[in-house]
Amino acid sequence: MILFIFEGASYEPPLYEGIKSLFFPKSNDQVLCSFCSSIYTFYKRLKDEFDGFADVVDVLKTELAKTDPHNELFKYKSADFESVYLFFDYDFYRDDLEVKNTQIKELLEYFNEETEYGRLFISYPMIESIQYTRELPDNDFHSYTIKRDESVGKKFKKEAKRFCHYKGYAFLKDIQNWMHIVRQNVFKANDLTKESLSWPLDKDDVKQEAVFEAQLQKYVIPNDEVAILNAFPMFLYYYFPAEKFSENK
């Protein structure tokens, strides 16, 4: 079984269901659940009295008992999942940013292997960045950034919708569009970490820890902005052989 943990319940699950229909059409071994709060609240819920991290499935069940007591997750225990993937937003408009950056670093270090505790993927500034594109392929995608005060909740959601060449979400149901989305996100991540707008030489070159550190050093700290990236195309690149997203496909 594979467990997918999303930050939100309204946007991420339907978006992933579309991805699943395109990339995992025959898979029946996936469980989806939503934490329904920020990555910083997730961090606090995971922390136990010994200053370590509690079991992520137990934490989720505690939260779901309040909001979704019939969730499929209650049928399983941690040992039932061979892989765990987590998807959260980088909410850098919040206070105490230095403390929160430290928390995210700790989470990325901990959730760095899907067959152990899980593998965390982060969207910058939030999941709606999947819409932040002109007509695909968008050759300018690598240059898109957003200021901290413009990345706030509904403000960024409206901007992403306005900016997007496509109306609605139908364009996300086309596998060729996803090929472009994966390529432009991965190229941008490699440009962030290796200053090369190209395929990474190694997948570790664009691992989430490296991308986050590059975001801090190149955008967040010096310019109070962040380079727009999305977690889902980075997950797809990580999960499948890079050749799957070749220009010749």
Q: Helix share of residues?
A: 40-55%
Order of strands across the biggest sheet? Answer: 2-1-3-5-4
Low-confidence stretches: none
Mean pLDDT: 94
Question: What do you see in this structure?
Answer:
The protein has 249 residues and is α/β, with parallel strands linked by helices. Helix content is 41%, strand content 12%. The protein is built from eight helices and seven strands, in the order E-H-E-H-H-E-H-E-E-E-H-H-H-E-H. The protein has helices at residues 12-23, 39-46, 56-67, 97-110, 153-163, 175-194, 208-223, 231-239, and strands at 2-6, 30-34, 83-89, 112-113, 118-123, 145-147, 225-227. The protein is globular, with a radius of gyration of 17 Å. The model has no long low-confidence stretch (mean pLDDT 94).
Describe the structure concisely.
With 249 residues, the chain is α/β, with parallel strands linked by helices. Helices cover 41% and strands 12% of the residues. α6 (175-194) packs across α7.
Secondary-structure blueprint:
Blueprint: E1 2-6, H1 12-23, E2 30-34, H2 39-46, H3 56-67, E3 83-89, H4 97-110, E4 112-113, E5 118-123, E6 145-147, H5 153-163, H6 175-194, H7 208-223, E7 225-227, H8 231-239
Parallel strand pairs: 1-2, 1-3, 3-5
Antiparallel strand pairs: 4-5, 6-7
